[in-house]
Amino acid sequence: MGSLFSPIPSANKAVPGSAASRRDKREKMQLTSSRASHLALPILIHLSQLLLTLSQSTNQTTPLVPAVIVFGDSIVDPGNNNAIKTVVKCNFPPYGVDFIGHKPTGRFSNGKIPTDFIASKLGVKELLPAYLGTTLGPEDLLTGVSFASGGTGFDPLTSRVASVLSMAEQLELFQEYKEKVRAIAGAKRADEILSKALYLVCAGSDDIANTYFTTPFRRTHYDISSYSNLLLHSASNFLQELIHLGARKIGVAGIPPIGCVPSQRTLSGGILRHCAPGHNQMAELFNSGLTKEIRRLGDKHRVKVVYIDIYTILLDMIQRPNNYGFEVSTKGCCGTGDLEVSVLCNGLTSTICTDVSQYVFWDSYHPTERAYKVLVDWLYQNYISYLV
């Protein structure tokens, strides 16, 4: 039965349509919104943390080797020469103009050098530091350094002429470095790091360009063939000592087409600045002998020693620059591009090109960061499987 009376509004209940009713609706909506916000906030925080974790796990890679350890010349010197008395330096502008912070570090380029790209690709670290002249923390030491010194070579005379670290002195520093790694990590872990590390060796260009063809000291006693053999003998001794000191994975770069770098075209290429044939002939002889010697050493000592051919790819970049996105391959970006290198490429007397990305060479001797990246990408694709 229906009620005989209409419901009487409660004293606490607003009449529909009244101002009080509208106020109640607003309060309910605000309360609902507030509760939703309180519920959404933890969910958003959780989602943000989840996305951050996923992003970090995506960006992090397991290093393919525990450390990268490097010996050689200016191609792989990240600044060791800053700490020694020599004129072979580049710790001043315009070197480093495209490096992080636009600062010169002692790298003989406008930016990064090959070993930086290699260490990054292997997942070890973004930059491979110099052993000398920098403050190195435990992690820096454990993940590898470079002992390379711009201006050095396999011929002991080369480093003396330039007053830089010889290859033998780099090995002495390596032994000192090994003791530091052991002090940090303990003997067992240190031995594991050093035995699994990737060792890279890059030298020989300065022997040809700066010692044999520039000074008279060797040419009076050696022809191209016999001097190539002298370099090969010294390189073999160096590699055997490195193996004796514990290296088990060694990549050895051959000599590039040094006769085609801008400075050697200017000095030895005639009025038309052709590639200097004698320089390239010696590089090819050395590389041919080095390939065989590396195979012999690997078999003898049962270690990975891999010859890395940089001659072919660099020669192709120089002869067909357009195929790699470059325009200029016979001159450097610094100054006239014909002779400026090291102290001759400076912020006081040298201007730089307007678009360095179009140049294979930064100065008259060393490639640009972009050319180095092209080179390393190619080398990584073709050689990494043999080294790690």
Name some characteristics of this structure.
Rossmann fold, two-stranded parallel sheet, disordered N terminus, GDSL esterase/lipase EXL3, four-stranded parallel beta sheet, 388 residues, alpha/beta
Question: What can you tell me about this protein's structure?
Answer:
It holds the Pfam family Lipase_GDSL. This protein has 388 residues and is α/β, with parallel strands linked by helices. It has a single domain (63-319, 368-387), classed as SGNH hydrolase (Rossmann fold), CATH 3.40.50. It has twelve helices and six strands. It has helices at residues 19-59, 114-121, 138-142, 156-162, 167-185, 187-196, 205-212, 224-244, 262-268, 277-301, 311-319, 369-387; strands at residues 68-72, 198-202, 249-253, 304-308, 328-332, 359-361. A four-stranded parallel sheet has the order 1-2-3-4, sandwiched between helices. Helix 5 crosses helix 6 (187-196) and helix 8 runs parallel beside helix 10 (277-301). The longest helix has 41 residues, at 19-59. The radius of gyration is 31 Å and the shape is globular.
Tally of discrete structural domains: 1
One letter per element, helices H and strands E, the order comes to: HEHHHHHEHHEHHEHEEH
Q: Which term fits the overall shape?
A: globular
Structural class, judged by helices and strands?
Answer: alpha/beta
**Overall radius of gyration:** 31 Å
Q: How are the strands of the biggest sheet laid out side by side?
A: 1-2-3-4
Helical proportion? 40-55%
Quaternary state, please?
A: single chain
Calculate the mean pLDDT score and round it: 89
The CATH architecture designation is 3-Layer(aba) Sandwich
In whole angstroms, the N-to-C terminal distance is: 91 Å
The total of helices stands at 12
